[in-house]
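ok so for the tutorial part 2 we go from a plain amino acid sequence to predicted structure tokens. step 1 is just haveing the sequence, like this:
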Amino acid sequence: KLGKELGYKDDEVIGPVTIGSDTKQMDVLSRRKYNEASGTEIHDEEIARWAKLKDGGLLIVDEANLTRPQFWNFLNGFFSDEPHIWINGKRHKLSQRHRFIFTGNQEFLEGRQSQELIEEFMVTVNFPAFDKEFLRSRIKEDLATDRRRPDELIELLLKRGFKEEGRWGSFQGTPLTDASSRMIIAARKEGLA
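step 2 — the prediction. this is what the tokens look like for a chain of 193 residues:
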């Protein structure tokens, strides 16, 4: 949906690419794989596929600040007079339609780190914490209407999914349907769904 609003076709949107503290650059750029028939091949991962889109594309990266501070420096060329990215020692020219969006949580949360590239070149947009009523309405909207005892299920989702972590405002970007689908299992165990 966001890609279309920004003028990109579905096949021009790559992601969301989810990053973790153990993510290596080869996990998002490219890696070598052995094929018995042809030997070692280079397999492009999400960011390499984005960079090689001839007419540009939108790259969406989730949890971009979970990795070490220098991780994204391979994208420094994006901000040069002639935008480019280095992949496996090769320079790939980027078009004016190559864009990316990074999402992440505040750096005071455990595991988050300040990112050099983000601090130097990017604009950061902070969103206010979601209040309980907003989350309640989103969960209710995302749950099927024929569920039994939806109010109890909503309370369970809020309690198990968010309140125990004690950080209402850190929940951002992830669709509530994902959280709902994970929590439905817990609800079924307790006989609420």
